[in-house]
Structures are given as C-alpha cells and as structure tokens.
Amino acid sequence: MKVAVVKESAPGERRVALVPETVPRLTQAGLEVLVEQGAGDGAWFPDSAYSKAGASIVKTDDLYATADVILTVTRPDETQVGRLLAGQTVIGMLSPLIEPALAATLAGKGVTAISLDGLPRTLTRTQAMDALSSQANVAGYKATLIAAGAYGRFFPLLITAAGTARPAKFLVLGTGIAGLQAIGTARRLGAQVSGYDVRPASKGEVESLGATFIELTAVSDGAGQGGYARELTAEERQAQQAELTAHIARHDVVITTAQVPGRRPPLLVTEDAVKAMAAGSVIVDMGASALGGNVAGSVPGETVVTENGVTIIGAQNLPSSVPTAASNAYSRNISALLLSMVTDGALVIDPADEVQAGVVVAHDGQVVHPAVAKLLRPADRTGGADDVDRAGN
Ligand code: NAD
After folding, report:
1. Nearest atom (ligand 1) to Cα of 390
2. Are the beta carbons of 84 and 64 closer than 8 angstroms?
C-alpha cells in the first residue's frame, strides 16, 4: 500500500503530516512511503532526509496518480480535491463539523475521508493519536511567547543595579491542554501566574503547575460531557463576565483559550474588561475566529491596539508557527492512527470499531459519520456546527 505525504496547501501552513523520523515505522509495517517534492521544507525537513529514511520523493502528478492513502495536516484545497481518485483515502484534520461540504464532496468522489478531529480522546489506546491535544500543546506554548514578545516589560522579577522590575501578572482563562501549557511556559519565564476554568477539576491541574486558581461565585460547575465544558446559560455568562472583569483588570497579560465543543467560543473578556486594563497590557485570544472569540474586539490573525493602550492579538494557527515541533508530534499521531487501521499491509475500515466510528467521515460513497451526515441534511442544518459536539452527539 502506498502512503503519500502531500505539501500542505493552506496559506501560511508550514507543518507537514509525516516527518522523516516516522517513515521507518510505516515501512517496517510493509507500507511504501511517497513524499511530494518539498513537502517538509516549511518544517525544515528536506527531501533528502525523507529519502534517507526510506521514502520516495515524487512529483505532484505521480503522487495523486498512484497513492492509496494520502496524509495531510489540514484539509486539501480545491485543486488537491480535484486530483483525488475513487478508492483513495485521505487522513488529516479535515474539520468535518465545520466543513461538512468537504466530506460530502469526498464521499461523492468515492474517496474515504478520515479525520483526526473526531478521535475519542479519553481511551488509553488513542492517547498517541490525539492530534487535537498535541497541537493545542504547541499552541499554548507559542501563545505565551507571543504575549511575552508583545509585552513592554519583563515577565520575571528582576533585581538589577538599574532598579527592580516586578514580575508580570499573567492570567490564563480556560485551562485545558493549551491553557496548562501556556501556564507552564509563563511560569518558566518567571511570571506570576493565575488560571481560571469553568471545570472545577482543572483547579488541581493549575495548582500543580505552581499557579493560583481563581474561583468565581458566578458559575459553580461548568463541566459538561467527556471532560469538556458545557455551554453556560445567558445569566451564568453575564455573571461570569462581570466577575472576571475585576480579575482581568489586575493582570498585565491575559491568554484566553476557552472552547465549548461544537459551539462558538464563549466571550470571557468584554469591552468593559478591556477598558479596565492598564495601558501596556497584552491579551492573546486563542479562541479568535471569524464568528467572534473569547475577547471583545479580537480579530483572527491581527493585532489591535485599543484606545486605552491594550494590545489584543487574535491568534491564528499557532501550531504552524512552531512547525518542526508541531509536525513531529502530528506525525506520531497520524502514523499511530494509520497503523491501527492497517492489517497485512492494507487499510481495513471497520465501522464497528470505537475509534474508527469517531474518525471515519466518508466511505463507500457515503458520509458515514452521523454528526456530519446530520449537518448535511437540509432540515437539520439550521443550527450548523452549534448542534453537535466533537464526538458527534
Ligand atoms: P477545549 O479546547 O475544548 O477548551 C479549552 C478550555 O476552555 C477547557 O478547559 C474548557 O473547560 C474551558 N472553557 C470552556 N468554556 C469556558 C468558560 N465559559 N469559561 C472558562 N473556561 C471555559 O478543551 P481541551 O483543552 O481540548 O480539553 C478539555 C478537557 O478534556 C480537559 O479536561 C482535558 O484534560 C480533557 N482531555 C482529556 C484527554 C484524556 O483523557 N486523555 C485528552 C484530551 C483532553
């Protein structure tokens, strides 16, 4: 079976789905690895490193003409989709709950689509395949570095002959995978760190990193299903925003990561909260999206400086900005998933398997993932992705 690694097509995307180090794992399993010319360049993996690891470097046309399985990081663009042939399989982060139409197109072409975003993340055997976690980890690290770069003062306490600098007061709102990594990185830079999350379970995790957990009276328990947060009611949201405002005003740097599966990111930092911050403060909104983010006024991919001197950075694809580390981790994730589906050198689709039920989106000409199929039915489409969670419930 020929497994091919394509050059990513999304603008600015620097990651690659498979790194040279992982190639032998696939070849030892009897798979042949093809790599599109220059696929690893953005992440500093030259073609020669892939060849040395046992892969064949191929031209784009040859890759699409001969591959059985195509590995990608993000969704293929229209040109790439146009090249796909019936019987081929695409594995990547295809965001089918956000872009169900892609799943329908691939199904229509007879292409099998497998998306790592649907992986059931709490099973022991899926830990090594969890690309959402590995990429969130990279993103949380980079968010702290971006905040440190934009902040006009030091993060650590510094005592020098020229005076003493107090440590930066650093707050993370949403302490899941990305938030905890942001906290750890800020602690290593010497900031005075606090964290807040609606899930009470995260208190222990925040404190174990040496940060202070902020408890609000507004929302006592915002835990939902599967370790994720639930969507708050309008009253809870308002009370949470109001109570957070006082905490935000006391901090110099705020990083927000809050997500609720299948819903728009909740607004945590209101316009009033931004106005209450001191000039020179920095906010990095990791939830920034075209639909709105965690911070009033944030724009994805842009830096906005407010009238009162607060810098609001709308983060966008942070994992791509740490391309080597992000690709290394992703490569382990995608190869672990692929190998779990290979028997005697061939890909075996088994809808009865718990892991496959989460990741296989399109197969045999049909959109087989129930949550994605639901989004494609006109009568059910009104709520869009707002109606489903990542596991497809
Ligand atoms: P996520 O990206 O869905 O959300 C980020 C954080 O935002 C979460 O901690 C969430 O609780 C928080 N949040 C949502 N709404 C909020 C609000 N209104 N106010 C404040 N915070 C809010 O989450 P994630 O990082 O993917 O992980 C979420 C949970 O899943 C964590 O508990 C994590 O440990 C767990 N998880 C477990 C495994 C495993 O068992 N192996 C794997 C992955 C994730």
Report:
1. 3
2. yes
